[in-house]
């Protein structure tokens, strides 16, 4: 269940923070399918996801470089899901694309 | 309840992903106190937080620059909390410090 990493910098983090609309509307099945698809993108490193019940969700995807992010953005099923997301699944979301300069972990 | 942003790039995101140990052990009160303190750091832009019950938590703090991150890391109560965190509150955590290059939102 994570957390994934730390990875060797530099790499990229795509932070997706959202509030959902009520109801599922195929969101769960689509999210599972997208997790399978992103795992096959060359340069994908891993992802972490958390959602407070009835509140904010945060998903962070880690990628080797901008090329890997672009490949994922260009995936046809991912594109279609983004369109549905804007119309059906999300009340609001914010995306931050960032270059990771350092990372560390503890356990 | 968020999500915060998007802000004007460049800025920094500090992603903190964690698994908690069982029990509270003052975690809740300390987390509230730290939220008050970080809000007063010059260059702090905002933060988002989510936790799946029994699972992963993700907190992302946004800062104007490295100086703001350093100021927050140097806060004495924050230092003390990090020490307790390693000993008492977290089974495991990973931190990624990243420079945000672009961001966008939808609502």
From TrEMBL, chains A, B:
SUPFAM superfamilies: Dimeric alpha+beta barrel. Residues 11-83 form the ABM domain. This is ABM domain-containing protein. The lineage of its organism: Bacteria, Bacillati, Actinomycetota, Actinomycetes, Kitasatosporales.
